Amino acid sequence: MTARRSRRRSAAYAAMALGLAGSLALTGCNSHSSKKSKKSSSSSSKSKKRKIIGGGAAAAGAGAGAGAASRSTTYCTTGTQGDYKFITRTDPSHVILKFHNSKSRSCYLYNSPMLYFGTAKQPLGYYEGAPSFGKTQRIEVPARGDAYASIPTTTAADKGTKQSVVKIGFMNASEPTQRGLSANIHLSQYAGLPSVGKTAKVSDWYLSDKLAEIKTNTGR
Question: Where is the stretch described as Disordered (predicted)?
Fold first, then answer.
């Protein structure tokens, strides 16, 4: 009877040990699988974050580039008759040329205007000298802004006679050649035709009439 009980106890202990071992093994497996799942989920989340961040930066860069391109400054175009005005001033005698940038973005003007009065084949001379690679004047005319040049007419030869027609050319950066030429501009629209002779010379472009006058000693 004692021997039989002993065998039963041994069998029971063996079964309990086997069950416990199996349970531990299953717990370890589940734990390992859970860690793997969490790791995989975390990796996937990081990957998604990287993609979102990278995509956003690229899009922002592309947008900024497009915006910069759309705001880029270009050469001014000669425009139409309504973009110009000639103003005669006295004491000392001179004529102010005003150009209006009617565009919605800024533009560059180089050196001085090239003025062909009447039937002239050659433009007026340049008060501040012809441009070169070592001497280039450039201004940026704001959108809807103005630029000015002064023409001293303090001598009889410079004053010449009243002019009714002119063509205006815009100059290239470092040489006295034109990159654009307006159609005939009829000056009869102004109160008093400007008097400009063949020996007169015109200043470079400036952003204010006062500065153009200072450069040609025609300011008051």
Answer: 28-49
The pTM of this model reads 0.67
Asked if residue 154 belongs to a domain, the reply is: yes
Is 151 within the bounds of a domain? yes
- Contact between 183 and 81 under an 8 Å Cβ cutoff? The reply is yes
Q: How many domains does the chain have?
A: 1
Residues 6 or more apart whose Cβ sits within 8 Å of residue 151 = 94, 95, 96, 97, 115, 124, 127, 158, 196, 200, 201, 202, 203, 216
Task: Name the nearest CA neighbour of 85 among 98, 76, 74.
Answer: 98
CA distances from residue 49 to 30, 42, 43, 45 in whole angstroms, order as listed? 28, 10, 10, 6
Do 194 and 86 touch, CB atoms closer than 8 A?
yes
Instruction: Please give the Cα distance from 57 to 180 (Å, whole number).
Output: 41
Domain residues for the domain of 149 are: 84-216
- For residue 92, say if its preceding peptide bond is cis, omega within 30 degrees of 0: yes
Say whether pLDDT at 143 is over 70.
Answer: yes
Q: Which residues, 6+ apart, have CB-to-CB distance to 80 below 8 Å?
A: 102, 182, 183
Q: What is the pLDDT, as a whole number, of residue 168?
A: 94
State the CB neighbour count (10 A cutoff) for residue 176: 16
